[in-house]
């Protein structure tokens, strides 16, 4: 344990706990959000043209003429009516863009398996320093870094996402010191004047404490920002670690490492049905007794 703690200290964390934030941006995280332009509804004629241009390389002459005929019939008929409905709906929802609702519906109404089709995942290369690749050390470092990111975002210190086409002018301390004083209702346009394009960050809050709740016909995205626990999964077992409270109190990183250690080493959770609790044990005899009680007690209740 001492060796692992030394590794963590050399990585830049103090024994009193990791630095609270990743950084402190002088431009608030959501500074540009209020002035982001809404995605305009394209003209129906332009949509038809783009559709036909996309189809032309894929079809022979006869197929394309038929497709072109059907597209123009759609444009003059039901397409015109649908377009008017879309424009009216867009005017009633000025807080967002017209594509938002259908975009979420596309995912949340889909009945395809979530894990294979929609869930994003991340993979990481091995750390250049081999001593950091110990599973417990790496899990500790990643956990602390993720929580620091979360706290930086929630405190409004996370650097806003901006696409810089001329970073020599826009990605500078001088520009940031100026743009932070521009009202949020105008700040996006101030960035636009120097060829910088702030991006939408409205869904960042779902990076943590969020899940997808199964519902009939359409699932629901749920976020509980008051949650304080970390879920650790190991060999089919789930460990609920009350971690975030400790981080706020600057508990040392070695303490977190100690909390994660039982889930990585040989500790066996046994579910005892009679008290609906989870026990952990490393003793073979105790493990066997808990297992026997957990199996026999429900049978006893049924027979009784």
TrEMBL record:
It is found in: Membrane. Residues 39-261 form the Choline/carnitine acyltransferase domain. Pathway: Lipid metabolism; fatty acid beta-oxidation. GO terms for biological process: fatty acid beta-oxidation. The keyword Acyltransferase applies. Its main location: membrane. InterPro entries: Carn_acyl_trans, Carn_acyl_trans_N, Cho/carn_acyl_trans, Cho/carn_acyl_trans_2. GO terms for molecular function: carnitine O-palmitoyltransferase activity. Keywords: Acyltransferase, Membrane, Transferase. It comes from the Eukaryota. The keyword Acyltransferase applies. It catalyses: 4,8-dimethylnonanoyl-CoA + (R)-carnitine = O-4,8-dimethylnonanoyl-(R)-carnitine + CoA. GO terms for cellular component: membrane; mitochondrion. This is Carnitine palmitoyltransferase 2. It comes from Anser brachyrhynchus. The lineage of its organism: Eukaryota, Metazoa, Chordata, Craniata, Vertebrata.
């Amino acid at each position: 344990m001492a060796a692992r703690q030394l590794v963590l200290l050399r990585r830049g964390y103090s024994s009193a706990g990791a630095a609270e934030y990743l950084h402190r941006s002088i431009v608030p995280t959501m500074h540009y959000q209020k002035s982001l332009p809404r995605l305009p509804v394209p003209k129906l004629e332009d949509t038809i043209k783009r559709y036909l241009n996309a189809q032309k390389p894929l079809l022979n002459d006869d197929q394309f003429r038929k497709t072109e005929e059907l597209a123009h019939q759609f444009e003059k008929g039901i397409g015109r009516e649908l377009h008017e409905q879309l424009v009216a709906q867009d005017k009633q929802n000025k807080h967002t863009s017209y594509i938002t609702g259908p975009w979420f519906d596309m995912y949340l109404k889909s009945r395809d398996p979530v894990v294979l089709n929609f869930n994003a995942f991340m993979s990481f290369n091995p750390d250049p320093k081999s001593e950091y690749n110990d599973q417990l050390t790496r899990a500790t470092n990643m956990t602390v870094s993720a929580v620091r990111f979360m706290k930086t975002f929630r405190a409004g210190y996370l650097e806003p996402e901006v696409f810089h086409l001329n970073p020599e002018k826009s990605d500078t301390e001088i520009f940031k010191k100026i743009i932070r004083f521009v009202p949020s209702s105008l700040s996006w346009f101030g960035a636009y004047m120097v060829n910088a394009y702030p991006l939408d960050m409205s869904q960042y809050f779902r990076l943590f404490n969020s899940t997808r709740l199964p519902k009939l016909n359409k699932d629901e995205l749920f976020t509980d920002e008051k949650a304080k626990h970390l879920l650790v999964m190991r060999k089919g077992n789930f460990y609920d670690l009350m971690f975030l409270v400790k981080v706020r109190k600057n508990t040392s990183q070695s303490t977190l490492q100690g909390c994660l250690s039982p889930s990585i080493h040989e500790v066996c959770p046994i579910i005892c049905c009679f008290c609906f609790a989870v026990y952990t044990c490393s003793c073979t005899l105790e493990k066997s007794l808990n297992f026997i009680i957990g199996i026999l007690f429900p049978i006893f209740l049924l027979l009784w």
